[in-house]
Design a protein that fits this description.
The chain is of the alpha/beta class and 281 residues long. Helix content is 48%, strand content 16%. The chain is globular, with a radius of gyration of 20 Å. Belongs to the short-chain dehydrogenases/reductases (SDR) family. It holds the Pfam family adh_short.
Length: 281
């Protein structure tokens, strides 16, 4: 049910996985949602259940002009924009050596450039309103590079670097930015992933990875991520980063501690590489 005080969301990748869970949670909270996806047919029954609350938009976020047009449609339809969730993404697995140029660019086009185009398109509206919250759905893959997901991690590293700068640039206009780093959830990210043509020299490593994933994978219901997102956007002081899940929380601290130990061990070399000198003539 729609209320005059309901918030307006723009969610990309809204038809499935985490995006679907975010959309359902926002609608259930009485908010209005513009749900964007390449295939919007799965949103039909949601629209029927929440008449007047859902605007389904067929959108390929890698098309910059289409993204800007979509944002105009959202603001024309709902009159405002409050929460933007850059969720659209894909996983292209393979060892770094195996990636073709086309595959590498495709991974970045969706995971990085898609979020960049959306962020650019919504900022004028949010800036004019003097408020708003952009939520960038990143990944555990942005905590470090892992075998067979190197290009996926690279795209998420790029997303986070851009988003940190965006947060600092937008803060003065009252616009908040949060990077969300989820762990494993039962979505089709893995089942719909694309893989490179395998180089047999990596077969032993692939076997080890498959064993690790079979023994150590922890996946949760997307509903839990959606509940966390609702708490995030309700906060008056949201964090720049939010970890979702105990596994990713522990991995984040472990990786950070190991980095700090390495930096400390090499401190003398690091400090010796800097010495102020006059500017060259």
């Amino acid at each position: 049910m729609e209320t005059s005080s309901s918030r307006v969301w723009f969610v990309t990748g809204a038809s499935r996985g985490l995006g679907r869970a975010f959309t359902e949670a926002a609608l259930a909270a009485g908010d209005r949602v513009a749900g964007a996806a390449r295939d919007i047919s799965p949103l039909d029954e949601l629209g029927a259940r929440h008449p007047g609350q859902l605007l389904a938009l067929r959108l390929d976020v890698t098309d910059r002009a289409a993204v800007f047009d979509a944002v105009e449609k959202v603001t024309a339809h709902f009159g405002r924009l409050d929460i933007v969730v850059n969720n659209a993404g894909s996983l292209f697995t393979g060892m770094v050596e195996e990636f073709s140029e086309a595959a590498a660019r495709a991974q970045f086009d969706l995971n990085f450039f898609g979020a960049l185009w959306v962020s650019q398109a919504v900022l004028p509206q949010l800036r004019a309103e003097g408020s708003g919250h952009i939520v960038q759905i990143s990944s555990i893959g942005a905590l470090g590079g892992f075998p067979s997901t190197g290009l996926y991690s690279a795209s998420k590293f790029a997303l986070e670097g851009m988003s940190e700068a965006l947060a600092a640039e937008a803060a003065g206009f009252g616009v908040k930015v949060t990077i969300v780093q989820p762990g494993g959830y039962w979505t089709d990210l893995y089942t719909s992933s694309t893989a490179t043509s395998p180089n047999p020299v990596y077969d032993p490593l692939r076997a080890d990875l498959e064993k690790q994933w079979a023994e150590g994978s922890i996946d949760s219901e997307p509903r839990l991520a959606a509940e966390a997102l609702l708490k995030l956007v309700a906060s008056d002081d949201p964090p720049l980063r939010l970890l979702l899940g105990s596994m990713v929380y522990d991995v984040a601290f472990d990786i950070t501690r190991r980095r700090m130990d390495t930096w400390s061990a090499w401190e003398q070399v690091s400090r010796a590489a800097e010495k102020a000198v006059p500017a060259p003539s």
